[in-house]
Write a structure and sequence with these properties.
Elements: H1 2-27, H2 32-48, H3 52-59, H4 61-64, H5 67-85, H6 89-115
Helix pairs in contact: 2-5, 5-6
């Protein structure tokens, strides 16, 4: 039963983040790229002020899988490295914290490109 509750919390929080993105798409003139950047920066800022971590503790993957979770991971890594390595950690911590996710995205993107049959739009 606990797993079901965790899945529901994850689904609801992740869904609400996506609903916000859809509302921004429908009601504003913002492009997809600008909304992604807005979410990424929002995740980083919310982590920096201590608001995103409780959301991650509550919803797990529902808060870390959307693009705002990537901003959260970058900020969290940078903050941890600054504590242990000093100011240089602000530049290395975010990359170190997100390296595995970036690697997986590149590998699976490459595999998808190899296996697909792209066609020109024209």
């Amino acid at each position: 039963m606990d797993l079901l509750i965790e899945c529901i919390k994850c689904f609801v929080v992740g869904g609400l983040i996506c609903v916000v993105g859809q509302i921004l798409l429908d009601r504003t003139q913002l492009t997809n790229g600008k909304i992604m950047v807005l979410f990424l920066i929002s995740g980083a800022v919310l982590q920096a002020i201590g608001v995103y971590q409780p959301l991650v503790d509550f919803a797990g993957a529902g808060a870390t899988v959307p693009i705002s979770g990537f901003g959260y991971s970058l900020a969290k890594g940078a903050m941890e490295e600054v504590k242990s390595e000093g100011l240089l950690g602000a530049f290395t911590g975010g990359i170190r914290n997100t390296a595995s996710g970036i690697t997986v995205a590149i590998v699976f993107g490459y595999l998808a490109a190899l296996l697909s049959n792209p066609k020109s739009k024209s």
